[in-house]
Amino acid sequence: MTNPEAIFAGAPIPNPLPDTPVLLDRTINPEANPATCSVYNEDRWNLTPGVFESHVEGFGLNFTAVPPEYRAALKRYFWCLINIDAPRRQRGGTVRRLALRSIEDAFGDLGAFVRWLHTNGIQGFGDVRDEDLERYLSDVLAANVGERTKRDLLGEVVRFWGYRMILPEDIRLPASPSWDGADLRDLLGNPATPGVNRTPRINTDTIDSLLMWALRFVNDFSRDITAAFHDHLALWRYGDVRDATLRKQFPRQTLTTAAAQEYLDRLRRSGGTLPGRRTEDGNLEIDYPHLVRVLQTRTQTFYRDCFGIRETIERSGIAVSDHVPVGEPITGGIDGVPWRHNQIGYSEARHMAVLLRTACFIVIAYLSGMRPGEVLNLQGGCASRDLKTGIWMMEGRKFKGAVDGKREKIPQGEIRADPWVVVEETARAVEVLEHLHEQPLLFPNQLNPSATYGHPGIRPGRGRTSTRMGDDIAAFVDWVNAYARENGRDGDVIPPDPEGAISPSRFRRTLAWHIVRKPRGLIAGAIQYGHVHVQMTLGYSGSYQSGFPDEKAFEDWLYRLELLSDDYDELRSGEHVSGPAAPVYRSRVEGAHHKFSGRVLKNTQQAKDMLTNPLLQVFPGRAMTCVFDPDKALCQIRTSEGDKTATPDQTDCRPNCRNKAYTDRDIAALRHEVAELQTAQRTSLAPSPRHQRLNATIERLQRIIDTHEGDERETAEQETP
């Protein structure tokens, strides 16, 4: 870590010069454009050269947005904040060097303090008195903002005070610690629910339809789209590349009359059409820019027309069409019918490729439980299959939690020690992207491999940003819904989500919800949540390094409380319970109600801890309820090494297990099952052994029903005066 003495050869106070780099003591991304690296005297500091995440948008500090009298002081402070460790700390503050993205947030929070000072006639930090800080505290506490915002606003003042001894005297806060060094939790009244994940899940109908269409793109449409996009790129390189270096890679040739005539003859033989385009008034004309691409020639060939080639083409008599097909005839379909009647056109090929990229993101992000940034930084070759186990694994780089020995963030991130383990559909989406383009990142910002990306050097990498991917998902939904309505598939329309836009960050929460609540359900009729659940529970993609078990634990906690609340209400209403675990069931349901009713979790760690409580080990199953005791369980227990939150595998439920209880609701389901088996017995033409097995099953289930009803009558008689 850098300190003032190391940088300034013993100078007690850092004194950067006008041309001192802003990111003097930060690691610079090798891909960053040096011209975009800011120096101290600039009023806008670009911080993105120090960021390595390819999906991060450009950001920085804009000092023109603060009152002029504070501009120089803030520059000095934020340069120190970027490059120098805090020499002191106040209780509730920290000396850990901030990540650059956090420094941008700090700029906004301290800027609020500066604007308050300016509004109240205080001309500089050196004029601030303890009573001013008390007034600011009162105003923050009274503000109509969340507790987290209040904490951030006050916390930045605390952090600023920590740097006072290496700042010039005229920009120092008072010598005594802000608010007498009080802990921020005491100042704020100890807010009740810090750290709770409030990311809304995606509505079930919405995510099911969204994933269904994403899988259709990956499994059914990808071949057609990929072929069309490859042809599009081949043509694009000869007509639309503006970069001089790239143009040299694809030299144009002089078009001869003979070559033009050969092209026209090929069209006549194949029944093809000349490429066309619509003018502003709707007229159809020959698309000469596209002929430049097709014939790999120069634009001047047609517009100077030195050899009469343009006249030859216009007099050919060949029809003109504004649909210029690329790729191959359509092979993919829906329900046995081609998904479109004509080939993909040149003008739509890139858009279709973007839709396919978006579909792959939806599949990977949702079915893996990965963070959006982790998905957007995946590179080609990341997916592999273990030949011994058949398990698909995905390697990638993580940034959250990547710290060095001093607990400072590693800007480059680090490769996860344990790969994510994913379902086959996720690996298939990776494969589709690898065939779609040749760029290192699976999700490049631009699919056309141009040498420039709009604003060279502004972005730290060439990956798609989370914000733009959110826009892509919205565009994907719009295209699907328009397609569904145009093709008479109104039942396949993706319904809107009540919570609004489907941001990438919502997929993890949604997967956790479905894994907990629909372990045997189907995803778009193709992927079993139960399959994903097994992967997660075994600790693969759900390793605690990924953070996904935090999501799952929180959802599991909520779900179990919902079920136990319903169970308690049924018991209070007189529901009868039978079976070997009936007494334990009643005890746990009543105990859980009294212990956890109205309980608020402060963080997901509490959820994980709570899930180990015996009172919560009640799991509804198929026409039975598992009152789980691992010592009595006859099934395979779902758990990972070192995980205390073991759960029963209800797909392996054994008839004679002592953990079973039967509620009236379970018995109703059993009666229905018996009726179905009796119908099958009467109508089946199966041989005698099959009838014997059906009889045995019916008799076993009927005994459970009879025992339950007998116990219920006996209990009623005992309670009758």
Q: What descriptors fit this protein?
A:
3-stranded mixed beta sheet, disordered N terminus, alpha+beta, 4-stranded antiparallel beta sheet, 721 residues
What is the arithmetic mean of pLDDT?
Answer: 80
Unreliable stretches: 1-12, 90-95, 191-197, 451-460, 519-547
* Terminal CA distance: 81 Å
Helical residue percent band: 40-55%
Overall outline: flat
- From the alpha carbons, calculate the radius of gyration and give it in angstroms: 33 Å
Structural class: alpha+beta
Beta-strand residue percentage: 5-15%
Structure summary, number of beta strands: 20
What this model shows, in words?
The chain has a four-stranded antiparallel β-sheet. A three-stranded mixed β-sheet has the order 4-3-5. Strands 8-9-12 form a three-stranded antiparallel β-sheet. Among the domains are: 4-188, no CATH class; 564-715, no CATH class. A hairpin with an 8-residue loop joins strand 18 (637-638) and strand 19. It is flat, with a radius of gyration of 33 Å. Helix 13 runs antiparallel to helix 15 (424-436). The chain has 721 residues and is an alpha+beta fold.
Secondary structure layout plus pairing:
Blueprint: H1 4-8, E1 44-46, E2 60-62, H2 68-83, H3 100-119, H4 130-142, H5 147-162, H6 184-188, H7 204-236, H8 244-249, H9 257-270, E3 274-278, E4 284-286, H10 288-295, H11 300-303, H12 309-314, E5 320-321, E6 333-334, E7 337-338, H13 346-368, H14 372-376, E8 383-385, E9 392-394, E10 397-398, E11 414-415, E12 420-422, H15 424-436, H16 466-486, H17 506-517, E13 522-523, E14 527-528, H18 529-537, H19 548-572, E15 577-578, H20 582-596, H21 604-610, E16 618-620, E17 625-627, E18 637-638, E19 647-648, E20 660-663, H22 664-683, H23 688-719
Parallel strand pairs: 3-5
Antiparallel strand pairs: 1-2, 3-4, 6-7, 8-9, 9-12, 10-11, 13-14, 15-20, 16-17, 17-20, 18-19
Helix pairs in contact: 2-3, 3-5, 7-13, 7-15, 13-15, 13-16, 13-17, 17-19, 19-20, 19-21, 22-23
